[in-house]
């Protein structure tokens, strides 16, 4: 699943990293220099989904750990199927020491398999002091804390072309109904309102989750995420009905439903920020900024910007997040040094390294916002941290993969079917419940 993107390293932060100075505008150290080199001669192996720019930026964090402790690091990219790759490594006697787990469901699976070490007292103290308690909850299984959420995504952001909204004479909306009204005005001015990436089912789960969290509230969201509430509940039907009004409105979606079902996530960003725009807005997480900047040369904050996903039907504006949790494997050859790495990742010092490199949000409230390289990223980070315990983790990432995370089946496929024909929300809710019941039972 495409969840993350990157921006540029600012000269101020680069200088701070190089010289061991403080983060721009903060009193917190960025460099990991000056450590006691207590782990010299040891190697920590780390596995995660990241590749390309993300892997390079994470390597900067690992290098800072090396500078501080003397430990060498080795990173292995797993691809999206983390559980299968890590399971095979454990069976082969070659388990990594630390895994960056991208889904709550996978962390829970690892814990239930007995693969994980509980986090050390030092790591737990840092988490209690620097993170909203909701992040401890998502990193815990049966009240035991196994995972540190080092990198987060803010998935309640609607990205837009300032030129498109200005040409239509509309401003960023504060409610869902205002957003649809603004979208119709944008459409009247010559562009479709939204580019929708219906070819990627995960984007549709994100649409649903934001509508549902705002409309139904956090308690029902939590119950639905754990399947304590059935998908046939009236609140689900209501959210699908709300979403269906957007999906079936040909004035709002670039190319209509058929085109949306043939548009992947990068393609949806291109339809707004590419050389030949077709739409004024695209909903997805903070990682839209990286695609708009890296692939289409947009200057974030000037010709690409965002507004928070607006409140639905008088509810509270939602803050849905995703994230990558660092866990320590019992079978790793150097689990003790791996735990030292997790302790380092729990500090604002470690988060500041990647924050300066771009393409990163930290849920650590002790990280000075001055560490981020641009105002828009600072704004998204402030929104995420400021939401505190009202943040809710991506619902599909909490579900069994057969329901919430597999192409061509479960929630992904059923919401694609709903995009194709949103005429019967109640029937779609029944199909979702049948698929969820089977996945949770299996």
TrEMBL record:
PROSITE patterns: PROKAR_LIPOPROTEIN
UniProt superkingdom: Bacteria
InterPro entries: Bact_solute-bd_prot1 (IPR050490), SBP (IPR006059)
Gene3D superfamilies: Periplasmic binding protein-like II
A Pfam family the protein falls into: SBP_bac_1
Signal sequence range: 1-23
Family: Belongs to the bacterial solute-binding protein 1 family.
Protein name, entry field: Sugar ABC transporter substrate-binding protein
Species of the source: Streptomyces shenzhenensis
